[in-house]
């Protein structure tokens, strides 16, 4: 058996591992020796108040977040901030179906929720780095789900939050999208209920999943104007295979399914007995809800419904023809716009007073269990 | 073997059959005794200038077009107009993979193009009814493709045209959509390269195809606002199964694939050596290009690109939260809006002079062959 080398330090590093120990999951079960992969840039100042947490999206790793969202002279500048980029559990760098020890490997990996990721990240930040305040939490798509969860779960710790192109509670339309692309993967006989020989034997399923991302991840205008030509592809067919299929083909199907379920079930109102108004009303951070105008998965009108329920928040819309995957910085104008909004947000102050007092973990583990559906 | 009773007079009639004889196809091959199914309403006047042709969309039949687009007191009123609704070849009422005689049945059915449908309809109108002028051609989605083809192919015969939510040349994004839902159907092992035992054995493939229609056929807002409740479904799951899956499940997979290929290849510029500007420039009809604002398949910006190339045309946008399948009249306001636009169009006069003279068939069969890609 050849080892899948996709999730390597060479491809996605350098990254470090933080040992979460025996990590209990919200849906039950424990991952022993659970590892949280992260990368960090810049220096934590003496007051420990210059930390920025960046989360990762579906199938993404810390590497792309570093490239697209940080850099010298950028809004998130390692010369100014201590930047931690945390990889999702299940993304292939943190503990995941493809790298976990027996007996949890492959299809036996337990169900992981957005709340598990956020609790794991909280452990890293507080216990390892001693950070009690975050200048900013930011993430796109599933990273936005984690950002929302952070702002609701730890309202006094998060000073600013920027969920980009993602929802506090996953939308029914998005639920359907995930149904279709997971079915696409599972319809490949080589998937074999997750007991495939090698990830790349699930070739047809991965290609079909990728095609659904081509369909929903960009925009009608992107294809009409042949904007893939600007990123080096000379035809629709070349883009479809060379970009989207090529992106997903080296990945592990069980990892993709683990993250898909997590995404599909994402809902901050799990913390407030299903009441979304209460959940978002807890937020103390200054929030910029950022949407992409051509996004077919999370259009501005959808993101705005969350923003309207969030105190001290504003909606910002990025103009892009690249749809949801504009998040990848496929158009140069994306960088200018995201830096403008994040730069502005970083100058603003959150509310001073918290009606929840000064604890940093508003929902201790026992409470979370009470709030399960 | 039980006969598939879905495509019956009871379900979709009353409809009549017009015998096209041995009908030669643009892509080669002949369908012997090819039948064009149609229904008609109202009376042709003495001058034979009150005829309206209505075409059908993907998987649709004359029945739904009758229900949603015609009626007493409506813009298309059988008391005033002679209305012919023509079923596509391959839709299960006209000659199709499921009802053709050997040796063309099932997967052996030849490839049919939009141009074949339009030539077949032209034969019915001119040879059987003696109609030389059409007050209006109207159709939605694939019906819009036929409407565009009519206006380009027979510019002096078509006085007015209203392509709704469809393109003159199919878009690359739409190409991808069709790729994904045809792959979904074919990924079912029961499909067996088109040699399935019974249509309903391809159950999983049909459900997956239907789910992709749920994903793309409506809108994010439709699901966010739970608008399916207005048409009798109490949950997303009930709508997904009870409406969309239930709609496609009784259909014949080879019929669906025949129409899908036709849709995917649709392009009026086949008539002008691939030059879309020339093709649309030929149009003499007064044209209302009608788009639906929440349509994810054919958004207004896409429809507008065709409109801008069409002389004597105007863009009209219907406000609907039901997306592309707003075409089904899922919201009462659809009826008001479509009647307003069609009523207005029917009062307008087309251009008087034609630079192409007074022939009614601008592209005799031999010419079409020359213009093949």
Give the structural class of chain A.
alpha/beta
Number of helices of chain A: 13
Q: What is the CATH level 1 assignment of the largest domain in chain A?
A: Alpha Beta
Runs of chain A in which pLDDT lies below 50 for 5 or more consecutive residues are 356-373
CATH homologous superfamily identity of the largest domain in chain A = Alpha/Beta hydrolase fold, catalytic domain
Provide the spatial order of strands within the biggest beta sheet of chain A: 1-4-6-5-7-8-9-10
Helix content class of chain A: 25-40%
Radius of gyration of chain A: 19 Å
Beta-strand portion of chain A reads 5-15%
Number of individual domains of chain A: 2
From the 3D coordinates, which CATH architecture of the largest domain in chain A would you assign? 3-Layer(aba) Sandwich
The coarse overall form of chain A would be globular
Short synopsis of the structure:
With 373 residues, chain A is of the alpha/beta class.
Structural account:
2 copies of one chain form a homodimer. In chain A, α5 packs antiparallel against α9 (about 255-265) and α6 (about 205-215) packs across α8 (about 235-250). The first copy, chain A, contains 13 helices and 10 strands. Helices cover about 35% and strands about 15% of the residues of chain A. In chain A, the strands form 2 sheets. Chain A has an 8-stranded mixed β-sheet with strand order 1-4-6-5-7-8-9-10, with helices on both faces. Mean pLDDT of chain A is about 95; it is low at about 355-373. The first copy, chain A, is α/β, with parallel strands linked by helices. Chain A has 2 domains: about 10-170 and about 265-350 and about 360-370, Rossmann fold; about 175-260, Rna Polymerase Sigma Factor, Chain: A (Orthogonal Bundle). The interface between A and B is large, with 36 and 36 residues.
């Amino acid at each position: 058996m050849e080892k899948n080398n996709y999730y390597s330090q060479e491809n996605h590093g350098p990254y470090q591992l933080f040992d979460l120990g025996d990590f209990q999951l919200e849906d039950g079960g424990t991952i022993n020796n659970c590892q949280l992969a992260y990368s960090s840039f810049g220096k934590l100042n003496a007051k420990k108040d210059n930390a920025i947490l960046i989360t990762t999206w579906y199938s993404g790793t810390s590497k792309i977040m570093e490239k697209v969202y940080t850099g010298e002279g950028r809004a998130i500048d390692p010369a100014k901030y201590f930047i931690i980029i945390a990889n999702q559990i299940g993304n292939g760098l943190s503990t995941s179906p493809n790298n976990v020890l027996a007996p949890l490997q492959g299809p036996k990996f337990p169900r992981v929720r957005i709340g598990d990721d956020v609790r794991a990240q909280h452990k890293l930040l507080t216990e390892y780095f001693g950070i009690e305040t975050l200048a900013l939490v930011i993430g796109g798509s599933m990273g936005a789900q984690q950002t929302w969860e952070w702002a609701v779960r730890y309202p006094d710790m998060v000073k600013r939050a920027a969920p980009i192109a993602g929802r506090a509670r996953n939308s029914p339309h998005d639920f359907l999208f995930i149904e279709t692309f997971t079915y696409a993967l599972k319809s490949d006989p080589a998937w074999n209920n997750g007991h495939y020989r090698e990830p790349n034997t699930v070739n047809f399923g991965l290609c079909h999943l990728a095609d659904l991302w081509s369909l929903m991840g960009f925009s009608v205008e992107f294809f009409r104007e042949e904007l893939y030509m600007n990123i080096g592809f000379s035809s629709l067919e070349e883009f479809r295979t060379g970009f989207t299929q090529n992106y997903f083909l080296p990945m592990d199907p069980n990892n993709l399914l683990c993250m898909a379920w997590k995404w599909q079930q994402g809902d901050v109102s799990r913390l407030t007995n299903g009441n979304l108004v209460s959940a978002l009303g807890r937020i103390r951070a200054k929030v910029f809800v950022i949407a992409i105008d051509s996004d077919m998965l999370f259009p501005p009108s959808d993101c705005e419904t969350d923003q309207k329920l969030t105190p001290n928040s504003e909606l910002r819309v990025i103009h892009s023809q690249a749809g949801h995957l504009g998040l990848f910085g496929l158009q140069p104008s994306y960088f200018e716009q995201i830096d403008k909004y994040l730069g502005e947000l970083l100058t603003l102050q959150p509310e001073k007073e918290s009606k929840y007092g000064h604890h940093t973990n508003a929902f201790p583990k026992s409470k979370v269990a009470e709030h399960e559906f």
